[in-house]
C-alpha cells in the first residue's frame, strides 16, 4: 500500500459495540482514521467492541468529537461523503480523493434527515438489490465504501 493521505471513517452515534470494533479493525488494517461522534451506545471499554477489534486497538487512529459540526470545523478543507439508503447517487458514481471523510449514521436511524437534505450532492448509497432487505450492516457498509475509495486512489496497488 502506498504511503498517502489516509481516509477517515466517521461514525455518528454508533449503537452496537461489535460494529464499531469491526470498523476499528478495518481502520487499523487500512491506516484509516476512525472518528466517533456524539453519544455512543456503549463504553469504549466494552468487551464486545474490544473483542471484535481483537488486539488491533493500539493501531487505530481514534478521534472523539462531541458533534459532527465540531469535526467539520476542525477539518475545513475536508470532503465529507454522507451515506444513506435514501441517497440518489451510488458510491461507485463519485470520485474519491485521499483524505475524504466517509460518514455513517447510527445503526437504527442512519444520519439525520435534515443533514442529508442539506448535503444531497454529497450523499451516497450502496444499492440493495432485494426489496426485502432494509439495510446492510454498518461494518459491511464501511468496508465496501472504504475499499472502493482505496481502489480508486491506487492505494491497493502493490
Brief rundown of the structure:
The chain has 158 residues and is an alpha/beta fold.
Topology:
Elements: E1 8-12, H1 17-30, E2 33-37, H2 47-53, E3 61-65, H3 68-74, E4 80-83, E5 89-90, E6 101-104, H4 113-118, E7 123-125, H5 138-152
Helix pairs in contact: 1-2, 1-5
Descriptive notes:
- This protein is α/β, with parallel strands linked by helices and 158 residues long.
- The chain has one domain (8-152): SPOUT methyltransferase, trefoil knot domain (Alpha/beta knot, 3-Layer(aba) Sandwich).
- Helix content is 31%, strand content 18%.
- It contains 5 helices and 7 strands.
- The protein has a 7-stranded parallel beta sheet with strand order 3-2-1-6-4-7-5, with helices on both faces.
- Helix 1 packs parallel to helix 5 (138-152).
- The longest helix is centred in the C-terminal third of the chain and has 15 residues, at 138-152.
- It is globular and about 35 Å long.
Amino acid at each position: 500500500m502506498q504511503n498517502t493521505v489516509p481516509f477517515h471513517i466517521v461514525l455518528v452515534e454508533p449503537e452496537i459495540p461489535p460494529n464499531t470494533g469491526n470498523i476499528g479493525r478495518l481502520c487499523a488494517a487500512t491506516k484509516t482514521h476512525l472518528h466517533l461522534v456524539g453519544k455512543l451506545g456503549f463504553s469504549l471499554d466494552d468487551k464486545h467492541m474490544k473483542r471484535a477489534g481483537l488486539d488491533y486497538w493500539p493501531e487505530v487512529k481514534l478521534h472523539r468529537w462531541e458533534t459532527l459540526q465540531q469535526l467539520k470545523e476542525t477539518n475545513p478543507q475536508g470532503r465529507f461523503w454522507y451515506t444513506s439508503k435514501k441517497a440518489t447517487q451510488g458510491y461507485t458514481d463519485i470520485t474519491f480523493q485521499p483524505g475524504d471523510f466517509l460518514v455513517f449514521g447510527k445503526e437504527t436511524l442512519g444520519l439525520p434527515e435534515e443533514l442529508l437534505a442539506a448535503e444531497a450532492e454529497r450523499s451516497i448509497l450502496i444499492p440493495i438489490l432485494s426489496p426485502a432487505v432494509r439495510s446492510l450492516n454498518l461494518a459491511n457498509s464501511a468496508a465496501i465504501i472504504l475499499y472502493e475509495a482505496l481502489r480508486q486512489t491506487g492505494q491497493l496497488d502493490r
